[in-house]
């Protein structure tokens, strides 16, 4: 049985790896084409390729569930076409044993997915966005197509780029009084975190008063704020790119501040349950091979896998925003498609 498990594992790993390579390659090519419309300043074709390269871990992470589904359909389909699955069953190997033999190599891809989502993707996505913003050479907030907005009291601020090492590029700040009137605006080329405050460098400030506007330049200026590099590293990323640990802590922080945290809870449950989503899709793949797709062509199997994956992802994409609009738990929105897939897979396997 050990040699049989190894044979199934090699087949599944090769098939899932090949499908993942194809899907990620197509995704990266599409992203590179999109970036051609962003070319500006020093952000040339080479920088666009570097940007796409840095976002590859995130693309791998997002496409592992679909790749596991289609890859298992393709790998097991080859075994079914060559009657090897029939021979295994005739030799006394149960469907449950074959299913577990398929699931074990998939756990390797799930482990890679968790490692990428927790430790690699948040860093590489932030570096990619920062490099693009710096290369495009945007100055003030109204000139920038990217970056981060934040509010602290009566002050609104925008950062063109946020680096993980506590350095900001393109810091624009707008200060308002209690009546909502603009009293000052400033722009600094960079800002560096100094432990308990920020140091703005190479800036210009405009003070707006009853007598008009006065402008002064400065080489450096101390900036006291509650913002820290750790908090900015969370704010600068989209919720889907934040690690599970930071999603949980930031969602709790928003609740303590009596702010809306549903978007971050949705991303938290989606990332936390992604391993179960991958496993449920693999159950669907195995059940299809032993059931309705036993004797069809490879093209039909792959087509079916892609359709099931699209339906699964679309259902999550529809239920997720629906939970934000209608106010039901994000956990239900994420878990429902997973439970449905797992239920269908178990039901079909029990009929085999």
How would you describe what is shown here?
By secondary structure, the chain is α+β, with helices and mostly antiparallel strands. It folds into two domains: 2-135 and 257-351, no CATH class; 148-232. It contains eleven helices and six strands. It has helices at residues 2-35, 45-54, 56-81, 84-90, 95-136, 229-235, 244-256, 262-272, 274-290, 298-326, 330-351; strands spanning 148-152, 155-163, 167-176, 182-193, 198-209, 212-223. The chain has a six-stranded antiparallel sheet. Strand 2 (155-163) and strand 3 (167-176) form a beta hairpin. Helix 1 packs across helix 3, helix 1 (2-35) runs parallel beside helix 5 (95-136) and helix 3 runs parallel beside helix 9. The longest helix has 42 residues, at 95-136. It is elongated. The two termini are 21 Å apart.
């Amino acid at each position: 049985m050990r040699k049989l498990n190894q044979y199934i594992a090699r087949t599944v790993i090769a098939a899932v790896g090949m499908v993942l390579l194809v899907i990620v390659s197509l995704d990266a090519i599409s992203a590179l084409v999109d970036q051609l419309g962003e070319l500006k300043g020093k952000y040339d074709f080479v920088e666009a390729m570097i940007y796409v390269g840095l976002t590859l871990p995130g693309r791998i992470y997002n496409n592992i569930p679909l790749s596991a589904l289609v890859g298992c359909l393709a790998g097991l389909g080859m075994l079914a076409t060559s009657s090897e699955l029939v021979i295994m069953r005739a030799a006394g190997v149960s469907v449950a044993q074959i299913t577990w033999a398929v699931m074990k190599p998939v756990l390797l891809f799930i482990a890679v997915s968790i490692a990428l989502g927790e430790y690699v993707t948040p860093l590489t996505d932030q570096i990619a966005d920062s490099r693009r913003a710096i290369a495009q050479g945007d100055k003030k907030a109204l000139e920038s197509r990217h970056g981060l907005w934040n509010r602290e009291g009566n002050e609104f601020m925008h950062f063109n780029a946020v680096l993980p090492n506590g350095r900001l590029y393109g810091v624009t700040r707008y200060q308002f009084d209690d009546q909502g009137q603009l009293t000052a605006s400033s722009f600094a080329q960079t800002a560096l975190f100094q432990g308990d405050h920020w140091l703005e460098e190479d800036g210009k400030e405009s003070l707006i008063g009853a007598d008009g506007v006065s402008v002064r330049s400065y080489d450096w200026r101390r900036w006291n704020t509650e913002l820290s590099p750790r908090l900015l590293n969370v704010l600068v990323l989209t919720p889907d790119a934040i690690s599970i640990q930071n999603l949980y802590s930031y969602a709790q922080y928003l609740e303590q501040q009596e702010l809306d945290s549903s978007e971050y809870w949705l991303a938290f449950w989606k990332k936390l349950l992604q391993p179960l989503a991958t496993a449920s899709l693999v159950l669907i793949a195995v059940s299809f091979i032993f059931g309705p797709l036993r004797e069809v062509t490879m093209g039909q199997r792959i087509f079916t896998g892609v359709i099931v994956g699209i339906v699964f992802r679309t259902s999550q994409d529809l239920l997720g925003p629906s939970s934000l609009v209608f106010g039901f738990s994000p956990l239900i929105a994420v878990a429902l498609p997973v439970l449905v897939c797992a239920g269908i897979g178990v039901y079909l396997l029990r009929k085999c």
